[in-house]
Structure formats: structure tokens, C-alpha cells
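Archive entry. Fields below.
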Amino acid sequence: MSVKVERKERTRAAIVASACDLLRQRGIGGARVADVMSGVGLTVGGFYAHFASKEALVDEAIRRTATAMRSRLFDRIEEKPAAVRAEVVLKRYLSAAHRDDAANGCPMPAVVGEVSTTTPEHRDVLAEQISELAEELARHVVKSEATTRRATALGMIALMYGGISLARAVKGTDLSDEILRACRAFGRGER
Amino acid sequence: MSVKVERKERTRAAIVASACDLLRQRGIGGARVADVMSGVGLTVGGFYAHFASKEALVDEAIRRTATAMRSRLFDRIEEKPAAVRAEVVLKRYLSAAHRDDAANGCPMPAVVGEVSTTTPEHRDVLAEQISELAEELARHVVKSEATTRRATALGMIALMYGGISLARAVKGTDLSDEILRACRAFGRGER
DNA sequence: TGTACATCAGTGAACGCGCGTTCACTGATGTAC
DNA sequence: TGTACATCAGTGAACGCGCGTTCACTGATGTAC
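PREDICTED_STRUCTURE:
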């Protein structure tokens, strides 16, 4: 039995991985169950042996990709001087590389717009992930008297998410690079 | 003949108005042709006497709502001291009222996410409207040596768009208000 | 002024397609004896 | 060790529904004479 179980778990993991890719590239609606499955070399019908619904898969994919993104953003961040850590995160997020490689990036750009319209389940998962990111980022924000670190972190998150989303939306135009540059400067406090 | 033409133009305008509402509330995919038409008291089939396709309608609705939003954001802005004008715009955009009244607000939150996936036509319209907004906002940004006014304006736009979108996505949770507050502070330069 | 005809906005049903989900079936893996 | 049976991941076709678009038709408005 246990060989069978292992095999099933591996398949399940592969489905989730495929979903993570498609979700980030095409959004919730664009991550079709049939496409997710064919990304693993399987057919649609088998999906329901692993998940109760597409919704359940999407929730898991959001959590997974958000966690992965955090790892990337804060990777080896302690090696940088404390004063510039938040800026480093900002630069990593608002990079052309991140804009052009949606499949391995942040889930927010793919998910935020659709979430308002779909099930409240997704909304809660998203809120939880945003809080998580804010908490971790706040630890690297330099202290000030003006606001709390968490507030600054939330502002940065909105700027990062907004900047990447707009840059992707107009990708291919000059405006796209301009937006990324402007957001990096704005986040650094240059006015 | 001219009475007929006037009537048709009035109907067309009503269709566009209905589309503007639905587009901002539900996004491109959610603004169904049948719903747009029934919002004017007509049935689906008649739509194609006015527009070649849903795409054409959406393009027009994006332009219209973007223009309307600009009017609102910059309304009587000259009455404010020059030094705070950009902040006033920021506050107007990142308000709870704007978050809760999507039907009369900015089209970006409803459109940006979907645009990357759909036709390039929409992308160009969006890019044009973002530039327009940046241009107008830049005029009210206080001059600095650090960056251009346009860059600051683009940073502000990303922050505003990002803040409203995130706040709407998690609407109903405490996080939603927290995000708006944090973004207003961040935009003001409080760190 | 009245009558026959043309135009065209709007109707409502149908078409085609995409997509999530269901379901009868298969075949490989595991268990019982 | 071998044989009969059970389980269940995966198949592939079908179902149901939503949505953009098409199309034959209607009826009110306008034109020609």
C-alpha cells in the first residue's frame, strides 16, 4: 500500500506545482483544470482523486507560491547591512526579471484582481498571506517615529504589487520599464 | 431621420454608461454583454447595432471611466495650496469611500489584472490612460532634485492602484482599512 | 394628404465554444488464503 | 508460491452551464410619389 500512497503523493505534488505555474502566469480563471493536469501528463478526470474542487487547489497554490516568494525576497538578507535590507527587497521585487518571469514570481498580481469577484475563501487566504509578508518585511524596515514598521511594510507591499502589476499590464511599451524605475525610486524615498 | 439618429445615440450612450458601471464593479470578464444591455432595459441581440464587439465597448468604457476618474481626482485642486495638491489626490484615491464605491471609481483595479491576459488592444488603451494620469498628476507634484516629477507621479500611481486593489481584495477584514491608512502615510513620505 | 415601400433599432432564440465536474470503466498494485 | 479478489489512480466521454455572437423577424419611423 505505501508504495501506492507515495506515488499518489508525488502526483499530487506535481499537480500543485503545475497549478502554481499556471496560476501565476494566467490567473485563477486562466489556470484551467485540464491544463494543470496536462502539465503533469495526466487527463482532467483524474484531478478529483486529489482535490475536492478547483477552489481547493487554488487556495493551496496561493499559499505555496506566496511562501516561495517570501523565501526568494528575503534570501540571504542578513548578509546585507540592516539599513538597506528593505530596499533590497524592494529592488528584488520591482525588477525586470520578476516582471518577465511571472511563472516563478509573486502570486498577488495574478490573484488580487480576481479575488474580489470570486469566493470569500480565496480572500481569506490572500489576507493571511499579505499579513505574513507584511510581518516579515516589517522586521527589515528601519525604525522611525513617523509610523509603525508594519505600516511602512504595508505601504511598500502596495507599491511593489502595484508597480509590478502595472508594469506587466503595459509590458512591451516603454512605459513598463519607466514604471519599475519610478517605483524603485519612490520606494527608496526619492521625491 | 435625425430623430432616429438622436435616439440611437442616446441608447448608445446609455449602453456605454451601463458598461462603465459593470466594468468597474466586476472587471472585463464580469461585465457581460447581456447584463450591460439589461442594465439599459434592452436585450442582448441589439448590442451589435451599436458596437462591433464587446472588446470595442470595453475599450471605450476604459477611456471614459479613466477620464471621469481624473476629473474627480483633480476637481478644484487649484483651490488647495500647491505644496499639498499631490497629497490631496492621494487621499482622495486611497479613501474608504473610493474603495467601497467601485462602480464610480477608477477603472484600473478592475482592468489591470485581466489586461495582461487579453487582447493587446486593451493594453494600449490602458497604457495611454496611465500616461495621461501621470502627466496630469506630475503637474501637481512638488519639485525635487532626486527625481523627475513624472517619476514621482508614476510611483504614486502604483501606490494608489496597489493600495486600493489590495484593500478591495481583502475588503471586510481589518487589514483592508489598515492598508489604506498605511498607503496614505507611505505616500506622504512618512517612514 | 394619403398610400406603398424602405430602413433599421431592437427581439429572442439558437449556435458554438470553453470549462468545471461527473461517471462508467480500465488496469496496475496490493491483500487474503 | 500461486490464485482469486479488492482497491483505487487515472481515462475519456458526457453533462450542464455561461457567455459572445449570429440571425430571421418585428414594428416603429421615415421617404417617395
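CURATOR_NOTE: Chain A touches chain B through 59 residues (CB under 8 Å).
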